[in-house]
Amino acid sequence: MADDDRERWNDRYRGRAPGEGAPSDFVAWLEGVLPSAGRALDVAGGAGADAVLLAERGLAVTLLDVSDEALRLARDRATAHGVTLSTVRLDLEAEPPPAGPWDVVLVRHYLQRPLLPRLGGLLAPGGLLCVCIATRRNLERHPRPSARFLLEPGELPGLVPGLEIVRWVEDWTHEGPEGRHEARLVARVPDSAA
């Protein structure tokens, strides 16, 4: 990612209040499968709303993002909620994610197809890869994100080879006034690989 792209993301987050932005309903959708202990990696986690929820569950969370401003907001949000959050500024288009093993890897609204199988390889035995990305059907109601950042219908399970699918759905969510069409998936390192 070019420095001007990083600055564009910094501009997007600059001036926002630390508590601004509600957590996604994706973490609530994960209820019943998320562990209450272990290490979690929030990939491209922005201002940390979801990362803080994971930390409140008892997970030791590391949030990755390319934006310094987003990471500052995430740290401030964690402090306000009384939890600890590690933050790492990282350009996932140029640098590898931190080595695991991770018990949970969360990816929401960030599509880099070659990265998903690599993230699965960073999971601890029994670890979960939790992914939420809009599909092309989202363009029926929203002009953004562009098709480049959207999944094809039914594509997501094929991007996590070697993992056991625990949950998978593609549908319109209730987030925002018109919802979003998202593919949501939880995949686990199978017992035979543990």
Short description:
This protein has helices spanning 3-13, 25-29, 49-56, 68-81, 115-120; strands at residues 39-43, 60-65, 85-89, 102-108, 123-134, 164-172, 181-188. It has 194 residues and is of the alpha/beta class. Strands 3-2-1-4-5-7-6 form a 7-stranded mixed β-sheet, with helices on one face.
Keywords:
single chain, 194 residues, alpha/beta, 7-stranded mixed β-sheet, globular
Task: Tell me what the structure shows.
The chain has helices spanning 3-13, 25-29, 49-56, 68-81, 115-120; strands at 39-43, 60-65, 85-89, 102-108, 123-134, 164-172, 181-188. Helix 3 packs parallel to helix 4 (68-81). Helix content is 23%, strand content 27%. A 7-stranded mixed beta sheet has the order 3-2-1-4-5-7-6, covered by helices on one side. It is globular, with a radius of gyration of 16 Å. The protein contains 5 helices and 7 strands. The protein has 194 residues and is an alpha/beta fold. Helix 4 (68-81) links the parallel strand 2 (60-65) and strand 3. The longest helix has 14 residues, at 68-81.
